[in-house]
């Protein structure tokens, strides 16, 4: 897929967008399905496809997901993410050889099947080659996490005051505003006294502007 070789226990900023820059998440249910797909396909070789797991009755489905999280081996750890109308960002740590590539392939294939069935379309939904760059140190990790979490504001999708409640990124999870536990937040939050200290770091636009030039090679437009 690319010349970059993903290494175990290394962290990467990964990005992809809709084919021909088309919208890929059109409503609340599609964003919710994307979040569920990420959470599900972090794990290696689930015994059922997501669509089949969702057909189980409520009790069986709850037990299935509990067991998956208890017993499943992760392909990649999701550190943070953001879904936008026509693209997405992840910070991922590879846990298994080939894990990031397999995770992204599983996510794209599963979500595309769902989207295409819903909208009666055929063909790929995302661009064939995702972009990825390795995070080289902890400082880069923190600033790229801020870049990802600020994406809805810097793209003029929402106002800054609405960022705390933007449901389609991991920022509310970092602030402990939601019960979802998709991410391993400790890799970032360990560098801050509290979740609120991290929130202030993300909102510090003047520092963000100064640092942006330093991480330009790690981000995607």
Structure explained in plain terms:
This protein has 9 helices and 4 strands; from the N terminus they run E-H-H-H-E-E-H-E-H-H-H-H-H. With 221 residues, it is α+β, with helices and mostly antiparallel strands. It has a single domain, classed as Transposase IS200-like (Alpha-Beta Plaits, 2-Layer Sandwich). The longest helix is centred in the middle third of the chain and has 21 residues. The protein is globular and about 45 Å long.
Task: Summarize it.
The chain is an alpha+beta fold and 221 residues long. It contains nine helices and four strands. The radius of gyration is 17 Å and the shape is globular.
Write the layout of secondary structure elements.
Layout: E1 11-17, H1 28-41, H2 50-53, H3 58-71, E2 76-84, E3 87-94, H4 99-119, E4 131-134, H5 138-154, H6 171-174, H7 186-189, H8 195-203, H9 205-212
Antiparallel strand pairs: 1-3, 1-4, 2-3
Please name the defining characteristics of this protein:
single chain, 221 residues, alpha+beta, Alpha-Beta Plaits, four-stranded antiparallel β-sheet, globular
């Amino acid at each position: 897929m690319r010349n970059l070789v993903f290494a175990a226990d290394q962290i990467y900023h990964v990005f992809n967008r809709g084919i021909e820059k088309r919208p890929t998440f059109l409503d609340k249910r599609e964003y919710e399905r994307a979040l569920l797909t990420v959470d599900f396909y972090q794990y290696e070789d689930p015994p059922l496809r997501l669509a089949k797991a969702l057909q189980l009755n409520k009790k069986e489905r709850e037990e299935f997901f509990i067991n998956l999280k208890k017993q499943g081996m992760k392909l990649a750890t999701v550190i943070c993410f953001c879904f936008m109308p026509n693209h997405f960002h992840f910070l991922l740590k590879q846990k298994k050889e080939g894990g990031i590539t397999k995770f992204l392939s599983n996510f794209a294939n599963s979500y595309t099947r769902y989207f295409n069935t819903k909208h009666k379309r055929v063909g790929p939904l995302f661009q064939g080659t995702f972009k990825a760059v390795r995070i080289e140190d902890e400082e880069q990790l923190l600033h790229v996490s801020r870049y990802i979490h600020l994406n809805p504001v810097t793209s003029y999708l929402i106002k800054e005051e609405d960022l705390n409640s933007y449901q389609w990124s991991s920022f509310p999870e970092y602030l402990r505003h939601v019960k979802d536990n998709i991410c391993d937040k400790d890799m970032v939050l360990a560098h801050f006294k509290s979740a609120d200290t991290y929130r202030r770091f993300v909102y510090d636009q003047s520092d963000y502007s100064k640092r942006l030039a330093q991480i330009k090679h790690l981000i995607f437009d």
